[in-house]
Amino acid sequence: MTRALFPGTFDPLTLGHQDLIQRAARLFDEVIVAIAMSPGKRPLFELEERVALARAVCAQWPNVRVDGFSGLLVDHLRQTGANVLLRGVRSLSDFDYEQQLVGMYRRMVPDLEILYMPTAAELAFISSTLVREVALHGGDVACFVPPSVAEAVRARIAGDHSA
Q1: 41 is catalytic
Q2: I need a labelling partner for 44 at 20 to 30 A (CA). Which of 36, 38, 97, 126 fits?
Q3: Is 127 a catalytic residue?
């Protein structure tokens, strides 16, 4: 059984993430979307909210599950029994950053296969960071994220402005 783990903060989950998950679901027996707590990134959504949003988006693929985690990614890889680490890359700078991590991952989990999957060209410009920036400045993010995520972002931003 090939079990791929696709980690990230997913704050928020974008159409680029959704595309990679859908494509991975066709390739692997099981795909685990592993959502990192990442408090240092000051996320827009709490971990539990990001997990719930991702579960709603991923419900259409029966071989995809969503987990939240904190701590080291390699520990979560071991806990889940994943044998493939899936990483999405949008650009050469993404690839350069990911290459820096490969040595660490391989040293800590020698049997791990690491697969880089390029983002679809029409979605490569989308990042969660840019989506948050657009939303925080009053822009509409509906063309960058799944509909349920767009609604959650709108509600979060509206709630933040009324406080």
Answers
A1: yes
A2: 97
A3: no
